[in-house]
Amino acid sequence: MIALLRRAGLVCALGAALAACGTAQPQRRTPPAPVSAPPPAPPTLAPGPAGLTPVFEHGPRSRGRTVALTFDADMTAGQGARAAAGERFDHPQLISTLRALRVPATVFMTGRWAEEYPDQARSIGRDPRFEVANHSYSHYAYTRDCYGLPTVPRKLMRSDVERAYAAFRKAGVRAPMPYFRFPGGCYDRRALRALTPTGVTAVQWDVVGGDAFETDADVVVRQVLDGVRPGSVVVLHCTRSAAPATERAVRAIVPALRGRGFRFVKVSELIGTVGGRR
Ligand SMILES: [Zn+2]
């Protein structure tokens, strides 16, 4: 489009001696825009009782052996100084391993993480193997007493979610999903009510990978393999400093689950199979 405008400008400049520019438009027809169907809207759950934000925990148990690996890309709003001092909240090797093993996955990203690692956020967000979902901007808790996290005041909950989407857009993430994971998984009715206007589906899990601060990959592998059932949602982390064994664990978990006949899917596919609305 810029090239076309430049060309039009050039025609204008050349024609200026002959006719007043602005009245004599170049007689060139704009080529039709390529026609492509808009991508289908991602499935979401219907609102819960009293219009509360719906909560999804796992897919159907009886419709095939599917499992969704989810990775929380955690970074809190207060950790900028630690990142500047060299702490790594990203995990590019984990993402490379998922690509190499051809594992689809859902990444629950904080807005602060996307600000710190915009190139990685964009790369994950433009790879059809992955979907980016919202893990808040600040990674502050939406309830009191949630693993010692600072608390988001209720009136700022909605804007904390929206600010994360703005950070994703700024990084170049295409079409982030309308799914939200509460920091620490902590929520109550107040939080669900506060987020209703955003239209997100809250996504929890039924299998805790236990990779936070775990250094022994075998512990994570055992915990995941013991917990997974058809339709499971597994929570793991995409944060090198806080989840140092996750990448090694994934390299063992993936072939083991495939050997049991499991197929890896993204959260959107599980929500779609439980009758999520499009
Ligand atoms: Zn988190």
UniProtKB/TrEMBL annotation:
Keyword Disulfide bond: no
Keyword Signal found: yes
Highest taxon in the source lineage: Bacteria
Domain NodB homology intervals: 65-265
InterPro entries reported for this sequence: Glyco_hydro/deAcase_b/a-brl (IPR011330), NODB_dom (IPR002509), Polysacc_deacetylase_ArnD (IPR050248)
Signal peptide: 1-19
Residue ranges of the region described as Disordered: 25-60
Keyword list, A-Z: Lipoprotein, Signal
Annotated Pro residues bias: 29-46
Protein name, per record: Lipoprotein
Organism: Streptomyces djakartensis
